[in-house]
Amino acid sequence: MAKSKTKTIYTCQNCGAQRPRWEGKCSDCGAWNSYVEELQLAEPKTRGWSTGPGDSGTAANKPVSLDQRLEEIKLDRFNTGFEELNRVLGGGLARGSFVLLGGSPGIGKSTLLLQMAGGLADNKHRVLYISGEESVSQTGSRAHRLGIRSPLIEIGCESNLHNVMELARHKKPDVLVVDSIQTMYLSDLQAAPGSVSQVRECAGHLMGLAKQENITVILIGHVTKDGNIAGPKVLEHMVDCVLSFDGDISYDFRLLRALKNRFGAAQELGVFQMNSKGLEEVSNPSELFLEERGDQLIGSAVFASMEGTRPLLCEVQALTLSSPMAMPRRTALGIDVNRLHLLTAVLDRHLEIRLSSNDIFINVVGGLKLVEPAADLAVAAAILSTASRRDLDAKTCFFGEIGLTGEVRGVSFVENRIKEADKLGFKHFVIPASNKRHLADLKISKEKKISFVKNVHDLSKII
Questions:
Q1: For the chain, which residues score pLDDT lower than 70?
Q2: Helices and strands: H and E segment counts in the chain
Q3: What pTM did the predictor assign?
Q4: From 446's CA, which of 116, 234, 271, 399 has a CA 20 to 30 Å away?
Q5: What is the DSSP letter of 393?
Q6: Torsion of CA 82, 100, 76, 91, to 10 degrees
Q7: CB of 126 closer than 8 Å to CB of 174
């Protein structure tokens, strides 16, 4: 028999671009020395999406008319045993979905999925957990330490993807967990495990398995030093849901966020706490982030953020010091430092408080990272408090966006933010004046007060 024709290509390990010859700098992403030589079949095998010329296809792959009743096309979901995880996934783990979980080393990805497997087993769902990084005894020992013992959970150690897929088709589990995608390899490809080609092709085969066999497939993905999921960007496009599991190693809680979700809200947040028994879900994270708030309230403001559909209260701290340097320091933990530069310039210009000669430090307590511009008002309040050496009211909550001309712009989900703060006993809410029309149906008690601010001058009068 004639040998299969192969060709040599060079693949960028940063973005996945392919070239017929080696390049020192990738012309697509700009990375240096990222091209690796790979041998590839000239006519790669298909991933087997079709079921054959004489087969009409499985029930899961047959076309369904949209004029049928909702019950006939309703998406089936599994209860994972964690309410926090169910909410992040959009109400549970969808049958036949393709999920990618990324996170830093040691953050608890494998622990989370093992505990999820235990919750699925309690609800009579079969789970196959395949690890390419740990032996069966190591995975089993960790599962027993977490108190997970069930005949519905099977664990294995395998890196050859063909063997993994044959095992999955034979066992027919409800959920397949692959730990991790970077350790899987296809013998048809000459590239090393973890390379762009291997990750892309392995993910493509697993996606076909999920959709054809109606098996929910969950992948664990490594992350780079920048915090991005390692491998080609097409991996995140392939999957139905991208989950990010992170947290500050100095704290015992972990944050699970949905970066992409075809079956629920994106940017939904779940909070877990790590202890000796594994991960425990936190039902009221706002109370957790504020429970250690001190008595010295100079430079301490409370912000009501929205994480997906969940309102969350957090503490924003600021500190200003006179600097002898020509270029004072600007340090921001939890917010974008460029946003801090913008707010400092606005306050300095419109309120004339000479922040340009001060070092400014901002910290969001608990390791949270705030990306929405609604945090501007809380950051500005904390800066004004520490600059004027005046305490902020402990029961005051801030949210609003600040523009370059000093105006305070409206934000979304005003009622949800106020209700969350009201539930925790806050009595004063400082919000944009343009959001007043959104509060027509909001009912609060008489001892509660809402202050509407149009610009930073109004904010300085309140503080």
A1: 1-6, 40-62, 64, 68-73, 445
A2: 12, 23
A3: 0.81
A4: 399
A5: P
A6: 40
A7: yes
